[in-house]
Design brief:
There is one protein chain. This protein is of the alpha/beta class. The chain is built from 13 helices and eleven strands. The protein has two domains: 177 residues, Rossmann fold; 169 residues, Rossmann fold (3-Layer(aba) Sandwich), CATH 3.40.50.
């Protein structure tokens, strides 16, 4: 049976990769994996053969519908797997065209954000129910509840957990007691130093500058400035001998050369090129970000985790906040006290997340859904209604 996998951007590929590795090892399936070029490196750890989907966009034909049909004719899939991107593109059109042909389509969410946007092409104001994949795999009951509230039909939502988080927690749980010390030595962190690792995101590019209708009240530059100011304040306090280092881990879609923040004081940021997220989370004394999925990883791993969103004026896109697990720092005046607390006496995490995110069975659930669709155990008849969400 032929499976066409279109996992999308880095987040989608990271979520799909553990599942694709299982499918690739099964001789029953012929797996054709087409990630976006920006995300192809994520598959290196799994040794999964793949071809960049972006190549199709530069073959002399700019009609995305023609490209979608051409790829379907070339691959003749029995099943289509897709990620869900903040900026949907060719993957979404292929999924829609495939569904019109009666090909089963599974979409796997990788984040608790922008549910509707992930299934709308640029410029579309409405979303018809019959344009959705046959099955949308969601992370937990919280995501399902939010999507139903936004109008998604519950019958197409399946709670599976998060395969990428499963893999992270499995690997993190097998670390030996020397891992943190060795990792800090590898990264040049002294025994008397406190390390803050900030996981950046390209929010300026995603949501625009101040004054734009989608501006969140902050972006990566303003947050970094606030973070460095708070760290400098802590380090300059009388009687405080805390030595702090601040690493900035760029998002895969960010250009590290563009990470520049005007700073004052003795603390400077250091752009970090370490790709091992487990190492960065484990060696950090505090993991800091805005709404990155890495904050969820850090929280699940029991590490000190801080979300900085000063001046937040729109919906909080961090699930940990909306679900009541973590309170974001929205007032810059609170940041010094919160960072000082986390650096010296981290809070014990008392809030628990849905067990489906921690039971290690996400991959098995997704593979079972793939088999159910291929075996006809889940109906793939085209939904006749054209209701709008």
């Amino acid at each position: 049976m032929r499976i066409l996998a279109l996992p999308g951007d880095p987040g989608g590929v990271a979520a799909w990769a553990p599942c694709l590795a299982v499918l690739a090892d099964d001789s029953e399936f012929q797996l054709d994996v087409r990630p976006r070029a920006v995300a192809a490196d994520v598959l290196d750890d799994f040794d999964i053969p793949n071809h960049s989907l972006d190549v199709a966009l530069f073959n002399g034909d700019n009609d995305i519908n023609v490209l979608a049909l051409r790829l379907l004719d070339q691959t003749l899939p029995d099943l289509i797997l897709t990620g869900s991107c903040f900026e949907p593109g060719l993957e979404l059109i292929i999924a829609r065209k495939g569904k019109e042909r009666g090909i089963p389509v599974i979409s796997l969410l990788d984040s608790w954000t922008h549910y509707r946007r992930r299934y709308q092409m640029f410029g579309e104001s409405d979303l018809a129910v019959d344009q959705l994949p046959h099955v949308i795999c969601v992370m937990d009951d919280f995501a399902q509840q939010e999507m139903v509230e936004e109008g998604f039909p519950e019958k197409c939502l399946r709670i599976v957990g998060h395969p990428g988080l499963d893999r992270f927690l499995n690997l993190q749980g097998r670390l030996d007691h020397n891992f943190r010390a060795k990792g800090r030595t590898d990264l040049g962190i002294g025994t008397d130093e406190k390390l803050i690792v900030f996981f950046s995101q390209p929010l300026k590019e995603m949501f625009g500058p101040p004054g734009s209708s989608t501006y969140r009240g902050y972006d990566e530059s303003t947050v970094l400035k606030e973070l460095l100011g708070a760290v400098n304040a802590i380090s300059s306090e009388d009687g405080d001998d805390t030595i702090c280092r601040v690493f900035v881990k760029p998002h895969p879609k960010e250009d590290p050369d563009n990470i520049r923040v005007a700073t004052s004081g003795n603390i400077d940021l250091e752009v970090c090129f370490e790709d091992d997220l487990i190492k960065l989370i484990e060696v950090a004394d505090v993991v800091v970000g805005m709404t990155s999925i890495v904050l969820v990883m850090s929280f699940l791993a029991g590490r000190p985790t801080v979300s900085i969103q000063p001046g937040l004026c729109v919906r909080d896109e961090l699930m940990l906040s909306r679900a009541g697990h973590l309170t974001p720092v929205t007032n810059s005046g609170d940041l010094v006290d919160i960072l000082r607390r986390e650096l010296t006496s981290p809070c014990t995490l008392t809030s628990s997340v849905d067990e489906v995110l921690k039971d290690g069975q996400s991959v098995a659930r997704v593979i079972a859904l793939c088999r159910n669709l291929l075996n006809g155990e889940i109906s793939v008849d085209k939904i006749s209604v054209t209701a709008k969400l």
